[in-house]
Design a protein that fits this description.
single chain; mainly alpha
Length: 196
């Protein structure tokens, strides 16, 4: 069985993307231009890493994203259930990166840009979907009280519209716009380098 080895450039790129994930998520943890809406670009380097370096690097970058969320962005949920928060945040991050990498690998033989566009969609879908599953499994009673206080009769409607809706749509739009654009720039640079 042949194993894939990483060369120095790939390890360096993975390290750079890891640092970018940390910085972008730290900014998202503490900067909210609209109260209650956390705008983050952090899934973009996760998608790019998954596309350029593979499924496991995507999962690693997703794990780092989750770890940084735990450090500063999950205090409300940690106060309710720290095991539930740790499981939810780390699993959703890893699975989002893993799903982006798998989606890219499945589609890249047909068209690289279709593959990265699909990965840019699936990454926030998995991230938000697993967040909602975690809310249902670990924080249900609290979510019900939050929904009632916000005027929602249906807790699931509150979860989708109140907790995840705006953030999800912003993340999805950012990913769909930036991930293919950044991959295009990287590929243009590679083509220019190879033509010399």
């Amino acid at each position: 069985m042949k194993t894939k080895r990483f060369d120095t450039r790939q390890i360096t790129l993975a390290a750079i993307l890891t640092a970018i994930v940390v910085v972008l998520q730290l900014i998202a943890n503490y900067v909210q231009p609209v109260p209650g809406v956390s705008i983050t670009f952090v899934l973009v380097p996760v998608i790019i890493g998954a596309a350029l370096l593979g499924v496991w690097v995507g999962a690693w970058l997703g794990f780092i994203f989750g770890a940084v969320v735990l450090i500063g962005g999950a205090s409300v949920f940690l106060a309710i259930s720290w095991p539930g928060t740790v499981i939810t945040v780390l699993v959703k991050g890893c699975c989002a990166g893993l799903a982006a990498g798998l989606t890219y690998r499945l589609l890249e033989r047909f068209n690289q840009y279709l593959a990265v566009f699909a990965a840019a969609i699936i990454c926030p879908v998995v991230n938000t979907g697993l967040f909602l599953v975690g809310c249902r499994l670990f924080f249900w009673e609290t979510i019900q009280s939050w929904g009632a206080a916000a005027g929602y009769e249906n807790t699931f409607a509150f979860m989708i519209l109140g907790l995840a809706g705006v953030n999800f749509l912003i993340e999805l739009g950012i990913n769909m716009l930036l991930a293919p654009t950044i991959l295009r720039i990287i590929n243009l640079r590679k083509q220019k380098k190879n033509s010399k």
